[in-house]
Amino acid sequence: MVGTNSNEVPTNYDRKSELKAFDDTKEGVKGLVDAGITVVPRIYLQPPDQYSINKNFDSEATQFSVPVIDLEGLEFDRPTKHKEIVTKVGEASETWGFFQIVNHGIPIDVLEEIKDGVRGFYEQDTQVKKQLYNSAPASNWRDTFMCYMAPNPTKPEDMPEVFRDILVEYSKQVMKLGKLLFELLSEALGLKPSHLNDMDCSLGLQILGHYYPPCPQPELTLGTSKHADNDFITVLLQDHIGVLQVLHQNNWIDVLPVPGALVVNIGDFLQLISNERFKSVQHRVLANHVGPRVSVASFFTTGMQPLGRLYGPIKELLSKDNPPKYRETTIREYNAHFNDKGLDGTSALTHFEL
Q: Which has the closest alpha carbon to 94: 242, 269, 215, 270?
């Protein structure tokens, strides 16, 4: 693997061959770090405009912070507290597209065990990991695995053995939380609490475990490229390192880790069916000298499964003054376009605008 110290992305080399050579090792980014590399390989270099926005950081952006919403009290049927939480969820979904939740009901020991499980998977013997290796469409400074947990779960024998049990338990807890979040989001839209769940927004769940090794030249690459999520909502568990950023008012804002919290963000499909009331926003993960960073992302979507349900702007939200902004589509059709387009920093929703 050939590296470069230049901050310009080279174009006069056979990237496909170098990517294949990397994939053939089946050792991932962690394998590069374990080998002691000191220079980021060319396949990981990002165009400067993908990360240099930090150098032009608006000092006023330091006034911004992603909303943190305390869900405590929901279980006690307190109308005033319930209304307050719904209002906060709605405001955060409309203005940020991101918020963090505390007192969400998932025990701390479960959160810690799933993070430890992901870390343990990547730090086990390489020969074991190779059995589950798949190449990725984008070269980001991370290793990732993905499991379908609903409606048609990955077979247990195909899940990483080292943390299979906690993965199943965590997915059950996240599914329960997801249903609650969709109730709050429904109410925030002025709909009955069951509306989004009745639309099967909580039917599908994919869980991705990310492992971001320390990077020798973090200024030249990214842990995850700028993108918006192709789902209804994402529930993210991040560790203490915290290099997740959200684009808010044209500034990259750190999503600072809060002990015991989960990060929730609106996906493209919820922006579509809410007719842009809720916002699916760009976000990214920086590379870092410090690591490894571990995160667990739970995507509420049925992905590429062949389900025929059509989704368009919810009719109850439409009016003469608020006509539909998007055409109807299936999740499978949308994801096919999203995957073909790749993480190029543009919204896949544009293709479906009326």
A: 270
Chain center to CA of 70 = 21
pLDDT band at 6 (very low <50, low <70, confident <90, very high): very low
- 322 contact partners, CB below 8 Å, separation of at least 6: 275
Helix (H/G/I), strand (E/B), else coil: 276: coil
Within 10 angstroms of residue 89's Cβ, the number of other Cβ atoms is: 23
For the entire predicted model, the pTM comes to 0.90
Q: Where are the alpha helices (DSSP H) in 246-343?
A: 268-273, 331-341
Backbone angles phi, psi at 204, to 5 degrees: -110, 145
103: Cβ contacts below 8 Å, ≥ 6 apart: 70, 71, 72
Cis bond leading into 292, ω under 30°? yes
- 8 A C-beta contact, residue 188 and residue 89: yes
CA-CA distances (angstroms) from residue 7 to 47, 49, 58, 223? 8, 11, 23, 16
Residue 53 has pLDDT above 80, yes or no: no
Asked if pLDDT for residue 12 goes beyond 70, the answer is no
